[in-house]
Amino acid sequence: MFKAINKNISSSFKTIVSVIKRYKHIEHKVKVNEFDINIVETGKGENSVLLMPGAVGSGWTDFKPQIEQLPELLPNYTVIAWDPPGYGKSIPPKRNFDLDFFQSDARQAVQLMTTLNRPKFSILGWSDGGVTALIIAGRYPENVDKLVIWGANAYVSDEDVNIVKGVRDVKKWSARMREPLEKVYGAERFAEIWSEWVDAILNIHEKCKGDLCMKEIRDITARTFILHGKKDPMLAKEHVPYLKQHLQAFKYHEFPDGKHNIHLRYAEEFNKLIANFLLEKS
Question: From CA 64, how far away is CA 233, in angstroms rounded?
């Protein structure tokens, strides 16, 4: 009897250890062109999904619940979160905010996944990461399986200009929003890099007529999932209807009380929606 109990305990322990090993994250840097890109990998599946953070964000600051929970929901996926060049732990270099910084991130992301021998992948893109994801899906359709975006826009409107001007001073942010990024950059550098990002968006509005990826979204063939927080204060109301009008194949889900960070505020529901979408047969 005791042998049977011990055998069952041993078997259960081995199973637990196996699960822990399967979902334990690995954080490391990957050489991509001239950059040392910091990534977090978790899960062991053959399929791949890349998590793309928002403005000045990183894998951990922007996607902790996804890194920790998605592998269990997506056992046939490897989940990869990156810090774009000049963000998070992908420093140096100092972040470059040229007029084409979104396009540059798109190129580097595709190169990253190719370097990892995962050239075909799905994308979860939040805010700025959603813009970059739209560019990737439009310019490199052969690389993208499915696309998930939220808080993203194809252009910078006059209303967006007022929104970003209104959030330039990070001292006015709540501590909950500000402190995780201050831990990454230090308080002084965070305020500086955020102000640089605001200037970059204003420059795109002025010098590029606000165009972020208006051409690219018309070329997207990947099935797309648009999620939206109806009370998102960082996104002009016109953007979601514009994306719906110009994307070829999409599904839509709205969080009635959601704001900009629906994937953090409603992490469990959000992750299940994402997993179901990625597991659906096209």
Answer: 22
